[in-house]
UniProtKB/TrEMBL annotation:
Keyword set, alphabetical order: Metal-binding, Zinc
Keyword Metal-binding: yes
Protein's name according to its UniProt entry: Tagatose-bisphosphate aldolase
Textual note on the cofactor: Binds 2 Zn(2+) ions per subunit. One is catalytic and the other provides a structural contribution.
Active site, UniProt feature: 80
The protein's required cofactors: Zn(2+)
Residues annotated for Zn(2+) 2 binding in this entry: 102, 134
GO MF annotations in UniProt: aldehyde-lyase activity; zinc ion binding
Highest taxon of the lineage: Bacteria
SUPFAM superfamilies: Aldolase (SSF51569)
Key word Zinc present: yes
Binding site for Zn(2+) 1: 81, 182, 212
Gene Ontology process terms (BP): carbohydrate metabolic process
Amino acid sequence: MMALEEILLHATREHWSTGHFNASESDHMRAICEAAKEAGTPAIIGTSEGEAKHLGYDIAASIRDGLRKEFQIPIFLNADHHKSVEAAKAAIDAGYDSIHIDLSALPFEENVAGVNEVIEYARRKESGISVEGELGYLRGDSKIQKEKIEVKAEDYTNPDEAKKFVALTGVNRLAIAVGNIHGISLDEPALDVERIRAIREAVPEEVALVLHAGSGIPDEQIKAAIEAGIANIHINTDIRVAFVNELRKTIGEHLDEVAMYKLDASAAGAMKEVIIGKLKLFGASNKV
Ligand code: G3H
Ligand code: ZN
């Protein structure tokens, strides 16, 4: 199987982006793999700390193994936004392929120290675990926002700091804040594409740039971000909305049905369709 780093380097050089999609149920994991298989691209499944606890770390890793056997495509399991070294280590112990250690709320030096502890632990355990760090202040969470969230220029990732951070840690991927907001925001987000370009120029090509909070960003801005150097885009709210809206509708139409697997099948289908659309938008089709 091609390593995640190799795939990301191709994406950076060829100006397309891989898609990272969150899951809290085995159905979601399957929908992500079905979409990736259909698009002909690697599947990257993310579980936040909350999603991972709901699924169970070991169970998430076992489901991934089963999906690999069934789908025969590269499938990576990422510990998304793990906000403590302990949580990241739990994911490494369970056999996750990738860790996003998000200590962006801490001062720079503490962020660097925590990321390095995770990298050392990952390298001691097993080779090949990809590690993502985060710099900048990324606001919001993965839901439909009811209030306006103001993004300030000082929240953005600073290119010089990014360069320093990457050199001091050796992360494989860097999550950046460039006007993106987690969740679907009330007003249209405005990505600072020039800032993405500046960060791309400041850090080595081997370090992939990650755009979180991909839901609710207009297609044209997504395309411009990829052109400027983004190689991995995270989507959660858009697929949560697709799944839950369809589930609500189906339950409403079949009030006597109590077999959950019958009720949630079309919800998983709706999620899959949104993922396929995103993968096409990212230019990720036909890569495996
Ligand atoms: O890490 C997860 C993503 O950044 C999801 O963000 O809910 O705005 O798509 P989103
Ligand atoms: Zn995120």
